[in-house]
Amino acid sequence: MNRTHRTLTFAEAFDLPLSVDLRTAARAFAVCPATAYRLIRMDCFPCRVVRVGHQYRIPTASLMRALGIENLPVYATDVEAGAEMSAAMTHHFDEQEDSQ
């Protein structure tokens, strides 16, 4: 059976629930599920793994840390300042193009 294992996109990673199944975590690390199970058996999986009954669950916060994605607060004032800066830069570049 020839299956392609697609890596999680950045947007998909930020849309994850509090914990994910092992297949999703494997996708995040760009490994096949069989490799993920092998890493768990070797106690080498790159983030925390919780066994729930017959399933493995991976806390999303642990997954994100292992991927190097920090959980930083976003403040409305920072978003507004970024939007204003973006608008000012766009306006500046538009003026430069018009003058050429």
What do you see in this structure?
With 100 residues, the chain is mainly alpha-helical. The protein has helices at residues 10-14, 22-28, 33-41, 60-66, 76-99; strands at residues 19-21, 50-52, 55-59. Strands 1-3-2 form a three-stranded antiparallel β-sheet. The relative contact order is 0.12. The model has no long low-confidence stretch (mean pLDDT 83).
Give the N-terminus to C-terminus distance in angstroms. Answer: 58 Å
Radius of gyration: 20 Å
Main beta sheet strand tally, sense and closure? 3 strands, antiparallel
Strand order of the largest sheet: 1-3-2
What's the assembly state of these chains? Answer: single chain
Features:
100 residues, mainly alpha
In short:
By secondary structure, the protein is mostly helical. It contains five helices and three strands.
